[in-house]
Amino acid sequence: xxxxxxxxxxxxxxxxxxxxxxxxxxxxxxxxxxxxxxxxxxxxxxxxxxxxxxxxxxxxxxxxxxxxxxxxxxxxxxxxxxxxxxxxxxxxxxxxxxxxxxxxxxxxxxxxxxxxxxxxxxxxxxxxxxxxxxxxxxxxxxxxxxxxxxxxxxxxxxxxxxxxxxxx
Length: 168
Ligand code: SME
Fold this sequence. Notes:
The chain is α+β, with helices and mostly antiparallel strands. It contains 4 helices and 6 strands; from the N terminus they run ααβββαβββα.
């Protein structure tokens, strides 16, 4: 049985290194992308303080994201590429940190409690089409300005660990 170990969040670099270590241990030996996304969202939600939603949207067609495994309140199912924070991150192939969701034009409110957001694209690394977007990892917080630059870098690495550890 895997048991998540609580992590001290006061040092962001150590926090993210430890989160990544636990994700690697959690998904080791399993390559199913849905199973790994389910466990990754549960691990993130359990260990990362100050979140009200953590989960995945997968690129269903070139133009549409569809919700995948997550923790938090029920969410919008389909998001057009280019729409909201998730759709914008998928389109730009770049992470987006939103300090205040009320100030982000086109933000899609799935949970009215959300005040800040970090969305990281899932990018294929090797294989036949490296660099293609597979989906996004979306983190929402009820706290304004919850996500730092260290969080962006840390969750980008976590997303890369998830992508590399799963079959696509
Ligand atoms: N806020 C997101 C939508 C997804 S939910 O928050 C879970 C967005 O604007 O893309």
